[in-house]
Structure formats: structure tokens, C-alpha cells
Design brief:
four-stranded antiparallel beta sheet; Alpha-Beta Plaits; 2 domains; alpha+beta
Length: 324
């Protein structure tokens, strides 16, 4: 038996802008955004343990989902995630493992045995913040188990699996800053300069269904071309100028006073930081891009983080990773 542990950063993301361009026939909404990955997030520890005989698994794709669920209960021991969901099957780490196994069953490449894996979650990102914590956990699980179980699926195959789990999961498989369209799975790499951010995480959560049903939500923003987004980075990277915006901002700030307070705090620092404060995603977190000389001034950052109305963090953009 091989005992092997790997530790992976499960990074956060921010949306530099977020537009909804229309509703799809399947009930989802088409969006346009630029995802920026951060060097801050959760950590997942994967420990291989006993070999498990799974030779009874069939290649019946009609039963792949149920078989994958049973296999997950045999193969996955999840620690550190008890407070996230009441039912482990609803946890996105479990869902990531299940989706991977279901895919392998469907394509008929399941081995006769696999080693069980203990996955320990070291949680740092708040839930419901719009930072992609759970989605990142699912993607990190997909990447790690694909490596540990030697399935050797490529990046495109993993992105296809990731899309079945959630709209924000593919970007963490992609592993680099990207323009996203569709429901978030149509990704185009974009080269952005390294950056520093002040992020605030107020204790607030707004129900997603309420957000999408809200009359203030703009759902039909005119789509931009890939070239337009690439050529107008000066209008959304450091500052946020028209036509770029986060369509969820007026909705979330009207429903969650703590988010409005945090955003107002950052807006009061804009003239010094030389950037535009904004929300990320549809969650509660807000952020302010920092000009390089400001980010280098530790006394200013200490003053700003200590004076914030909620937890505050200074974080950096993350270079590309996970190139499979």
C-alpha cells in the first residue's frame, strides 16, 4: 500500500466585473465576466490510505450516478467540513469526487481497485462571499483525485466534468485569469498585470433565488466581444468605468446593509488607493484594487484593515497554475 499526502491551495476568485446578458432555455443565465484568481484561499490535504476493491462496479452509464455515490462513501473520508452541510453528499468536495468517479464509470475505464482518500479541509474563505470557496474546493478535489488515482483526464475533460457541478467550478480547473461567458464554462485566457487587493468579508448572506428574482437586477446587458474585453482592461482592472459593472451590486446592497457598509468603507479609500471598490460575484465580499505604491505601504494597510467594519485581508493575484 502506498501512503501519500498532497496539499493543495484551493484559491479564491474575484470578478472584476459581472454582467448578465440574458436567460437561457435551460433556466440558467448567460453571463460575461473576468475572473481573477487570488493567492488566498482554503487548503485541502489528501492522504491516500487502504486499497479498496471496487471490481463489482459495472460500466452501466445509466447507473453511473448511483454507483459513484456508493463509491464515494467507500473511498472518501471528509474531515473539517462538518459545519458546511448537514449531509456530506451535499458538500462540494464530495460532489467533485462523485462527478469524477461517475465520469470514469461512464467511459468504462474504472480500475478494479482504488486507494481510499482522507480529505481534510482547512477552511479560510467564508461561505456565500462570492469568492468561489466551495467551487474551488470541488475543482481542487477533481484535480487532486485525477492525479492520485492516475485517471489522467486532460484539462478539457475535467472542465466538462466541472461544469456539471457548478458555474464557478471550471475557472479553478482552468487555473488562470480568464474571460468567462456562457454560464461560466466558456473560458478565454487573459493576461493581466499582477495586482494587490483589499478584500472585506461582511457577515451577510443573500439567497440566490431572491437575487435573480429582484426587480433591480439587470438581466439583459448588451454582450461585449472578446476583443472589446481584452482591449478595455483600463476600464475594469484598477478602475471600473462604463459599460463595466457588477449587476448584483444594487440588489445585494439593498438587501444586506452589512455589504453596503463594507462597500461604503472601501469607497472612502478610493482616492488614496487609486482604484474603484466593487462587489465580487453575487455574494457578500467587496474589494478594492490597490495601486502598487499603496500596497507597499504597510502602515496604510494596517490602518485600513484595522479600521474596517468587518474582517479585512490584503491579498495578491495568483499566477497561472494547474496546467495539465
Amino acid at each position: 500500500m502506498t501512503t501519500h499526502t498532497i496539499t493543495r491551495l484551493s484559491p479564491a476568485k474575484i470578478n472584476l466585473f459581472l454582467h448578465i446578458t440574458g436567460k437561457r432555455g435551460d433556466g440558467y443565465h448567460n453571463l460575461q465576466t473576468v475572473f481573477r484568481l487570488l493567492d488566498w484561499g482554503d487548503y485541502l490535504h489528501f492522504l491516500l490510505s487502504a486499497q479498496v476493491d471496487i471490481s463489482a462496479v459495472t460500466t452501466d452509464s445509466a447507473d453511473a450516478n448511483q454507483q459513484a455515490t456508493r463509491l464515494c462513501h467507500q473511498l472518501i473520508i471528509l474531515a473539517g467540513a462538518d459545519s458546511i452541510t448537514d449531509n456530506v453528499e451535499q458538500n462540494l468536495i464530495f460532489k467533485g469526487a462523485k462527478a469524477l468517479l461517475s465520469s470514469i464509470i461512464t467511459i468504462g475505464e474504472m480500475p478494479k481497485s482504488l486507494q481510499a482518500v482522507r480529505i481534510t479541509l482547512d477552511k479560510h474563505l467564508p461561505m456565500g462571499a462570492g469568492l468561489g470557496g466551495g467551487s474551488s474546493n470541488a475543482a481542487t478535489t477533481l484535480l487532486a483525485l485525477n492525479e492520485l488515482w492516475q485517471f489522467k483526464l486532460n484539462q478539457n475533460e475535467l472542465i466538462k466534468i466541472a461544469t456539471t457541478i457548478g458555474a464557478d467550478v471550471p475557472i479553478f480547473i482552468y487555473g488562470q485569469d480568464a474571460i468567462a461567458m456562457g454560464i461560466g464554462e466558456e473560458l478565454t485566457a487573459i493576461d493581466l498585470p499582477a495586482h494587490h487587493y483589499l478584500i472585506l468579508t461582511p457577515d451577510a448572506h443573500v439567497n440566490t433565488a431572491k437575487l435573480f428574482a429582484h426587480p433591480k437586477l439587470s438581466r439583459n446587458i448588451t454582450p461585449l466581444s472578446i476583443d472589446a474585453i481584452k482591449n478595455q482592461t483600463h476600464d475594469y482592472v484598477q478602475h471600473l468605468n462604463a459599460p463595466f459593472k457588477n449587476v448584483f451590486t444594487p440588489v445585494v446592497t439593498s438587501l444586506a446593509p452589512a455589504v453596503e457598509k463594507a462597500l461604503n468603507y472601501l469607497q472612502g479609500l478610493e482616492s488614496q488607493a487609486l482604484g474603484t471598490a466593487r462587489m465580487t460575484g453575487s455574494g457578500s465580499a467587496v474589494f478594492l484594487p490597490l495601486e502598487a505604491s499603496v500596497a507597499a505601504d504597510k502602515s496604510i494597510l494596517t490602518k485600513w484593515t484595522h479600521g474596517a467594519p468587518c474582517p479585512a485581508y490584503v491579498v495578491n493575484s495568483l499566477p497561472p497554475y494547474n496546467q495539465i
